Protein 1
Amino acid sequence: MHAARPALGLALLCLLARPLAAWEDHARLSRLSLGSESWTGSQVRAESLEAFLEAERTGLAGLLSGFEARAAKELAYYPKLPAELAFRGEGEGPALRAAFLAAIRLNPDAKLILYLKPAPSAPRARPELPVDAVDPFDGRFENRPFESLAEGAELGALEVLATASDEPDYGLDCGLYEDNGTEAGSRYGLGEQPFGNPALDYGSQAPLHMAFAHEDPIIGLAAPFTRRSLADYRFRLYGELARFAFGTGHPYWGYRFGGWALHYVQDLCQPYHASLLPGLSAFRILALNAFGSAADREAALIFLSNRHSLVEDYAYRAVAAGQPEILAALGGSEEGKAGLPPRDAAYRSGWLYDAVARRAFGRGRRLDALLASSFPARYVSDPSYDYGLSNVGPTRDFDPYAALHAAGPEAAGALEGLLAACLADAGSFSRSYLAYLLDESAKPGPRRAPLDLRGPAYLAILLALAALLLRSRRRSYARRALREGGEL
Ligand SMILES: [Zn+2]
């Protein structure tokens, strides 16, 4: 599988050296997208993972074995679960939990305690938790505060779902590949990490939170490992677990697994998570790798990483500042940027890549160009500056939201219009996905794969070139035959 790495491998190994999320605060996006849905006010009781597993061990064993068979058949590039990790529902407490985490191939250090990430404006009623009680890699994001929940505590459905929608970024998907130097990675059967930096904790989650399903087929041919994303695996697995939990009377875990699944939907609404290098055409990527110097390649990746970090930073601040167009877009209100018509947003087979990632991929190039032209070169086009390392914590000295608004309303308006379009999709997709999850009788509609004419077009060009070559060879052969005939 790694035979193509010499072509694009260097670039992709370095890709995402910094910890990059798609959005810095999924919980807030979920609240804004789903806050006016009818189910959000229902109350549920917090239930520990161990209690859920002990109650449903037999049904879960059946569900997971059925999932494995479906995944092997339906998911492209699916690495089968090693037979010894299959969930049999045996053991108690920590042993049962460890068996479940292994069967769903989750980081065994994931905390998964009962906790809540309250809305920014909510009164603080419960004991506050340190970040490392929830996230094994303490302090990566500004994701405080967390509050502790007691077993059986009552809380709103949206609180559970929104809190859980941020959780996959708390180390759940770190260290799962065999070259990550972890014990789990050596057992999980996922093979070597196809892209992202395997030596960094958060670099190792990249193939589960990004998917380049719509990248040019030439890139797929030159570097097939770019296709080996596991985002759809995560999304479908958690969706099935959520529906199982709802169906067996465990709404807390229904919303919690549902929030995990929603995380991957929101990630793939971010153009930098659905495109490899959105600022460059496929031919420029190939040329850069074949003929570019190491410095050129490094510069392209730093631009990519800096623009990715900057747009997350900008979106986070725009949402926190209550930018009206963006809030309306997320909530799908009349004044907001139109999201997708319900028929196009509706959940169906192949939805995560065919519908969600497709929309974000289509916006990548424009977003990248807007970022490059809207901000000072230091932050978007200077290979000596690392946004993700330099503009954080005490060394933070640049607020892109304030800076762009100070520079002029047009530049900010253009970027926010595009961000609002991405977030309108995130809102539409979130609502239609929850409608599917919560409807016990719903069946996914048939797949509607988008039409992609690039592959056939390349084939037609190749055939035309071959025909031309053949014709010119025939002509030169005929000319030579005539000449030789004349000389006789
Ligand atoms: Zn993520």
Protein 2
Amino acid sequence: MDAPYPPRSENAAEFAWRHDDVFGRIASRYDLLCDVFSFGIHRLWKRRVARRIAGEPWSVLLDGATGTGDIILRVLAHQTTEGRTIVAADISAPMLATARRRFGAGIKAGRVHLRQLDAEAMPTVSDASVDAYSMSLVMKICDRRRALEEAFRVLRPGGRLVLLEASNIRWRWLHRAYLAYMATCMPVLGWLATGGDASAYKYLLHGIRDFPTAEVFAEEIRACGFHEVDFKRLSLGIVAIHTARKPGT
Ligand SMILES: C[S@@+](CC[C@H](N)C(=O)[O-])C[C@H]1O[C@@H](n2cnc3c(N)ncnc32)[C@H](O)[C@@H]1O
């Protein structure tokens, strides 16, 4: 018999796209939900990570689990991305359809290519074929070890990993207060914003609560073979930008 999928410890939210097409259901409202759940602060986080991604020296960037393309749209706004190629991938066809509409001219100009890919297993992406790999706000809802191993495989030696992910506020009492606040407010906000679809905020809440601290996640990245592992907390540590490099040149 198959092992239980995915193993609990590696998937903080215990989310599996095969079992629940929650992102397909909320694709048209996803950006609104981000504003509601984060009170708009996600825009600041995305601007920061987009600036970081755009500033890296890549010719080919793969953005895994790109969603509606919110971050790649911000990456495209940087002049430094002229003449560079971006592959924006996601497992959800409705999320990709929303991204397609939003990218518009970027797709026509051949700057962005959309692909339906599972970040945990991307057999159609060759080894060492991308210069930079980014993923945002998804490590908590997938098997992060598999996703990190795939990122490592597809990156060329010397390639850059940039992740924006849920993190922890360093002061434990404040982190606990933040979790309590989220556990109280999110069901109400989520219920209103999704018209009663509980999945979206249930996964988000579990993912935030059970995701490792920034220090532990950095160790996990290192354990997958990356070096130059670093992170920077944003908004006191509600999220963090993690960066790393695949060894080699
Ligand atoms: C919280 S959204 C983040 C979207 C985008 N990165 C952003 O920051 O706006 C999570 C996205 O991950 C996608 N996703 C979840 N599991 C995935 C997997 N195993 N492989 C690829 N995409 C996945 C969902 O379809 C959804 O679009």
